[in-house]
Amino acid sequence: MAFLLIINPVMVSSLTFEYSMDSTTCVQFLFYVTTDINECANSNPCEQNCINTDGGYNCSCKNGYTLNEDGYSCNDINECSTERQSGCSHHCNNTEGGYTCLCPPGYQLSEDNHTCTDIDECQEDAHNCSQMCINTNPGFYCSCYNGYMLYKDKKTCQDINECDSGRHNCSQRCTNTLGSFNCACFKDYKVSQDGLSCIDKYACENHNCSCEEGFYPNLNQTRCLDFSDLGNVLELVSVEHVL
Length: 243
Hints:
The protein is mostly beta strands. The protein has helices at residues 39-42, 162-165, 230-242; strands spanning 10-19, 26-34, 49-53, 56-60, 65-67, 74-76, 91-95, 98-102, 107-109, 116-118, 132-135, 140-143, 148-150, 157-159, 173-177, 180-184, 189-191, 198-200, 215-217, 224-226. The longest helix is centred in the last third of the chain and has 13 residues, at 230-242.
């Protein structure tokens, strides 16, 4: 009786003939030598990665995937789920086989692709303020120089009319300018050193007059008088003398 043992997978190595023990007949012997078949090379039976083993194979998955219980298919790992830590400082967006970190408005993603840092809109000239830009974390706001106020659009600065709004402290007259104002005085007065109050243009200090050309001090040395008025004074004195 002859037995034939086949081990799968196999490859035939040789075929020989020998005489039987009674030397009257020939018996055929088949010799089989087992050789591993690389299932991964022939046709990949796995959904993603195939690892050949001696007499079989194993399936594995790429980064960002996990092997299902069937040992063949792969399922995406949701790195943004509460069970896993993505490392994103703000928002996480899951993708097939990975994830990306996202930042809210006013922030930008750092080189580590995980951390969100504030965008300095003022430094990067990414604002539309007409005068001053104040950076915040996050965002920015606009501000104005003294004498200006922020318009309804929160970006444009417009002049404050201190004279019309009563925001000046001039003693007599107020003249508005862009971003400020100037004080002025009535006739025969001049603005004092404080730039706000008005003083008698022709008044003398401590009875010591130093009159400009065309003016003369009165008898009490308290005020400078205009020479054009001198004729009226002399005429009045003459009338009084005649009387």
